[in-house]
Amino acid sequence: MTDHRRFTDxxxxxxxxxxxxxxxxxxxxxxxxxxxxxLTEGSxxxxxxxxxxxxxxxxxxxxxxxxxxxxxxxx
Amino acid sequence: MTATENPPTYTWVGTRPIRxxxxxxxxxxxxxxxDLDLPGQLRAVYVRSPHAHARIVSINTAAAEAxxxxxxxxxxxxxxxxxxxxxxxxxSVNVMARDTVYYHGHAVAAVAxxxxxxxxxxxAAIVVEYEELPAVFTIDDAMxxxxxxxxxxxxxxxxxxxxxxxxxxxxNLERGEVDDAFAAADLVVEREFTTAAVHQGYIEPHAxxxxxxxxxxxxxxxxxQGHFRVRSSTAAVLGWxxxxxxxxxxxxxxxxxxxxxxxxxxxxARLSEMAGRPxxxxxxxxxxxRATGPAPASxxxxxxxxxxxxxxxxxxxxxxYNVGAFGNVAxxxxxxxxxxxxxxxxxxxxxxxxxxxPKSAAYRSPSAPHAAFAIESVVDEIAQKLDIxxxxxxxxxxxxxxxxxxMGMPHPRIGFVECLEAVRESEHYQSPVPDGAARxxxxxxxxxxxxxxxxxxxxxxxxxxxxxTGSPDIGGSRASMALMAAEELGLDVNSxxxxxxxxxxxxxxxxxxxxxxxxxxxxxxxxxxxxxxxxMRSRAATTLSVDxxxxxxxxxxxxxxxxxxxxxxxxxAQSKRTGGPLTASASLNAxxxxxxxxxxxxxLAVDEETGHTKVLRYTAAQDxxxxxxxxxxxxxxxxxxxxxxxxxxxxxxxxxxxxxxxxASFLDYRxxxxxxxxxxxxxxxxxxxxxxxYGVRGVGETGIVPPMATIANAISRAAGIRMxxxxxxxxxxxxxxxER
Amino acid sequence: MNRTHVNCxxxxxxxxxxxxxxxxxxxxxxxxxxxxxxxxxxxxxxCGACSILxxxxxxxxxxxxxxxxxxxxxxxxxxxxxxxxxxxxxxxxLEGAALQCGICTPGFLVAAKAxxxxxxxxxxxxxxxxxxxxxxxxTGYDKIIRSVQExxxxxxxxxx
Lengths: 75, 740, 160
Hints:
The complex is a heterotrimer.
Chain A: H1 21-31, H2 35-41, E1 44-47, E2 50-53, E3 66-69
Chain B: E1 2-4, H1 22-26, E2 42-48, E3 54-60, H2 62-65, E4 70-75, H3 89-95, E5 100-101, E6 107-113, H4 116-124, E7 127-132, H5 139-143, E8 167-175, H6 178-184, E9 187-195, E10 207-212, E11 218-222, H7 227-238, E12 245-249, H8 265-275, E13 279-282, H9 285-291, E14 297-306, E15 312-324, H10 330-336, E16 345-354, H11 368-386, H12 390-397, H13 416-424, H14 427-430, E17 438-446, E18 451-459, E19 465-469, H15 477-489, E20 496-500, H16 517-544, E21 551-554, E22 557-560, E23 566-567, H17 568-573, H18 575-578, E24 582-590, E25 596-606, E26 613-623, H19 630-649, E27 680-686, H20 707-719, H21 730-739
Parallel strand pairs in B: 1-27, 2-13, 11-12, 15-16, 19-20, 26-27
Antiparallel strand pairs in B: 2-6, 3-5, 3-7, 4-6, 8-16, 9-14, 10-11, 10-13, 14-15, 17-25, 18-19, 18-24, 21-22, 22-23, 25-26
Helix pairs in contact in B: 3-7, 7-8, 11-20, 15-16, 19-20
Chain C: E1 3-10, E2 13-20, H1 25-32, E3 51-54, E4 57-60, E5 73-75, H2 88-95, H3 105-118, H4 124-130, H5 142-159
């Protein structure tokens, strides 16, 4: 989402192990302090082409791409 | 016209029945919030700030409280301080100012009396002493070094901010190397655009009736896009548990995003609690303009690079949205809405900027129209300079499945190319441009969202069904729910009664916004129907003495080989013998919302003497995924288009030097009227959303995104002037013509 | 408080009510007579949601003082159907999906009736100008105009 690369020395794509989105966020927080909190504030994720709101417990597989995006509403 | 890819055959989905709630609406019986009166009801009237930014030194309500008929008076002191970290803090302060007013029209006090007239008399007797503070109203002034602080409780979101700021969000999105791409480009076009604040302009002012009982529980009837949000926000502002508030949605007289938040319900609830009587609040139109909405003003700089054969190689944009006096993510969402073209190199910088203006609210595809006006204008200018057909240029660069949006996520299956092709093949685009006129093209994108929905479906003992959801119906969604239920159950759509229930009679459901209702609430309805069908198959298996696995559901009946079909009505009639009433509920947090693209084509003529622009012909194509009720899909496309035409040509908040609104009426804030417009032709493109059982994407939002650039691009071709400021009203067009 | 006793007919019924000083006919219809079909969108005559017929002429009832109704024949949206038989405009609005939220619909129906009562065969342009005092924010007017055109055709058929 917004400028998260400031946490990751500029890396935009990161490989992480974890069985759920929440586990992935926890691992990212461990490796890049502050990033996990920032990702939790942006509480939606694109997982296998579908946007999920508040996705902590959504299961992911080893080859799953997760895109963290800002929470969206609309008019 | 409908352009459909491999259309499945449905019995009910895609048909156009009369909407169930229509009869009450054409006979005057439909009950909107202002139509409800309760015994002993009081009317409440507000005192509002005459300053754009001031400290409240004192409020003296003594004289007002002593006046005839006055039963209760509230000020900010009657509401708890939630603390700036609370997610509802801004709403609570916007509902009623505490020690500071942040915009002209900010609520300061309210009086409940036995009549509106007596309440107004008493409100006029309340004495408020202010100490004026410096105020800013424009993006430039608010972002300037040393600018006065708009709101001392605003800290920039998503970053570790130590100091309050006039910036609510700062967003940077980047891919590729824009500088290298611009250096290598054959053509670079760069322009700066501005747009004025505009109001959602729903015809029904905000209204509610609240009855707070002796048990401390409040019953709320109100006009809202989301009564569960009214419940939670009202409770929060009052410092109550959510369960103390019950909200019943009245018919809603338009919202378009503007009724996704609250303004009046906690005030009515507190007055009712103090007076021990029901309290009704109906905003005046003047209050609606001064103290609700609007959509932000904006300033956007766009630079696009292209090759001579029309490949768009780079986009750099700086965007700022004027969000009013409270934090808002408009800039972030504006940057994220950049998703239509491949742009291998991209750099976006976006800001949500506070000012001493009303707290901005969502308006149909919030933030996307501002960005699209700028980008689609520059893209069109490139097509003009390269002498490439504007649709062909867009087709060459259009995002398809797998291409990434500005936020980095690949698009799922989308229908942008199909929309462009549908307009290209349309009779409109194929016909010659009328003499003296010109034609404009522009595109738009909106994400659409999922979120939480609940539905309960009853099969009644007479073989009809009742479909109950928690989604307020702002554009015909009850008819869509009934159609999907009819398709699932195999019932006539007229045998289904779709209802919207109060917060205690249906499972939690998020607000009707983001084009989510037919998608997400529709999924809940379909799931509940499928659970009911499983139950009915089981009931039929019992009566037929067969295994349930041998029973299928077809054409509204349970069918087992070797037996006559058992119709739904028969299963319903026997339900007491087979296990009791037939009912099922489903709740979900819907994933997989399908983005929706739109492409518009408009013919217009510019009167070079007056600067007046007349739209002569207009076509809107949009990917609906699947059109459940095509008439109401067309209606969304037409309504969104005309709101966008109004935004393009007329509508603007005109501010006085003191930040007060100079045109707070429908006379002076001129939305389009019937005589301004031609018919709005529609092309429903159907590229089904694979994540929805009927392929629904949602259609409410995107229609408002393309019109501003469609009009600007046509004016450019008609008159040789590139309009970069909205609205393109006659004086502004005339100025540009004279400077040509 | 001064109150004026007002006698008039509303939708064919003889009615009377007491009007406080300064209240509009719209308020009297809604608050005194319980006819809430006429809506207040602006209170300043700009939106047409409160359109009614007074002695056959189209008016914004928010701009009429209640005592001005004395002796008048008033028709509101509640009175345009013939018993349980919908007026052709009501039927074509339903079939043509000419309403979304429905708040402007009563005003449009009354204004369209006023037009067709005097001009049974209006052009599209005449319809658009006749309805230019009625604001709709949902539909973009397209389906409203088409529904009025269709109702005009049906009314002319009946008149033959």
